[in-house]
């Protein structure tokens, strides 16, 4: 059976048709960039460094993968920043949020172990085992753990989306973007953010419930009480 020959699309021959084509392409580009523009607008004045971020009770660290059960280099950079903020007294509690959908894959516990190795007491670490994506983590931080204000820690290519989504979820947020080597993973993450911005805008607009919600958990409140007792 002979397949039909592929025909290349024909460009308009008239000036009017060409002008409409250009206008359509430009409109498509504008629509594609709107979500990213929204993210940059919301997060614009909320980005800080580890040096000048306001003192806040809670830091939120988002999962970024495991290598042989240990935090990936990208995740380790995030955790290093959180540990530094804790040691300097800029945060009291670290909420680690990540994927634990399989028995052999546990981001929050790996993050907890790493933080304790770097000077954060176990009692100041709270685990969210159902942070399957950024929106879920933000909503759960607010609704499940009662976080109203937080420092968010992630790589630069992700931090604006994290801030925009947590703000939409009701968490007053400051973002700290940690350094990262500009390797293939970094470029992939940056390219992925262009597509992720569209989903983020939809999440912020329609505010879907996370995959798992469940009852309120007192972990953050208890850790803050412990922090207060220690200071007292």
From TrEMBL:
Domain DUF218: start-end pairs: 57-174
Keyword presence, Ion transport: no
Annotated InterPro entries: Cell_Envelope_Assoc (IPR051599), DUF218 (IPR003848)
TM ranges: 21-40
Keywords, sorted A to Z: Membrane, Transmembrane, Transmembrane helix
GO cellular component, one term: plasma membrane
Pfam family, one: DUF218
UniProt keyword Membrane present: yes
Descriptive protein name: Membrane protein
């Amino acid at each position: 059976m002979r397949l039909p020959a592929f025909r290349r699309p024909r460009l308009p021959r008239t000036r009017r048709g060409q002008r409409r084509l250009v206008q359509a392409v430009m409109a498509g580009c504008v629509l594609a960039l709107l979500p990213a523009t929204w993210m940059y607008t919301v997060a614009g004045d909320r980005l800080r460094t580890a040096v000048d971020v306001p003192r806040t009770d809670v830091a939120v660290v988002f999962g970024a993968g495991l290598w042989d059960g240990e935090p990936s280099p990208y995740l380790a950079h995030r955790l290093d920043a959180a540990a530094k903020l804790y040691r300097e007294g800029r945060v009291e509690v670290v909420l680690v949020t990540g994927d634990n959908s399989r028995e052999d894959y546990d981001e929050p516990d790996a993050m907890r172990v790493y933080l304790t190795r770097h000077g954060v007491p176990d009692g100041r670490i709270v685990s969210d085992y159902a942070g399957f994506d950024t929106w879920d983590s933000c909503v759960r931080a607010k609704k499940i753990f009662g976080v109203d204000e937080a420092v968010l820690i992630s790589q630069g290519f992700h931090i604006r989306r994290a801030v925009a989504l947590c703000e939409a979820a009701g968490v007053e947020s400051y973002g700290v973007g940690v350094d990262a080597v500009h390797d293939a993973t970094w470029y992939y993450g940056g390219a992925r953010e262009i597509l992720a911005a569209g989903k983020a805008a939809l999440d912020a607009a329609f505010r879907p419930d996370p995959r798992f919600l469940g009852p309120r958990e007192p972990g953050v409140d208890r850790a803050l009480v412990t922090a207060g007792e220690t200071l007292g």
